[in-house]
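Predict fold of Putative restriction endonuclease domain-containing protein; 208 aa.
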Amino acid sequence: MSEVFQWAREENLQPEPITVEIWKKLPEEFCRLVEVENGQAVRAESPIRQHQTAQRRLAEMLDAAVAAYIDQYHGDCLDLNTDFDVLLWEMPRTTIRRPDVAVFDCAPDELRPLPASLVKLAIEILSPGTENVDLVVKKAEYARAGIPWYWIVTLGDNRVQMIEIYVLDHVLEQYRPFRKLVPEEQPAVVELPMEITIDWSRLSVLTR
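Predicted 3D structure, encoded as tokens:
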């Protein structure tokens, strides 16, 4: 990590805006701790346990949906990952985000950060301290980057309370509400961008 501290000055000012080229040279341990907003490194808050559990279980449900989709449509290849770098844009200054969960077109592992043009669905799970970023900032950024679907997951009382689904209006470059999922709808089946079954029983007790 010494090279990071040499690059980031003691007064916490970057010597220059982060570009994709600079990002690729930084240690992975550092990149996992930050996102890049208009060339500036911003700290990614450590998630709480409930957030981590919801993220893992949602990813498992989506992974099953992706596998079924590939079996049905052999010509298409989709993949899924959690907490990985997505390049929203490079100009005028680089912005790189780390969705909690994302579904995307298959791409080589060395393609890092992944271009947003390959992302089909981005999911953010609200945590204390991230509400404004996820509800306002990232929502606008993902829309501008052209990601077709955005899910916002709300936690409370040790469970997932709600999943809000937004679809991109390509003309306005804004998301519009598509559907709101709540535990009373059991199980919930979402048919876009693929058929996804939400098992609320797996999202009802996040920590013991």
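The chain has a mean pLDDT of 91.
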